[in-house]
Amino acid sequence: MSEHTPSQAEGERDDETAPGYDPPWTTPSQAEGERDDETDEERPLAGAEKADRPETPGPVTRDHVRALLAEREEPATLVLVEGRAEVVTVEERPSDRYAGAMDVISGEDLARRAGTRAPAEQDLEALVGMVNTLVGKLGA
Question: Which of 41, 43, 16, 21 is nearest to 30 (CA)?
Answer without folding.
Answer: 43
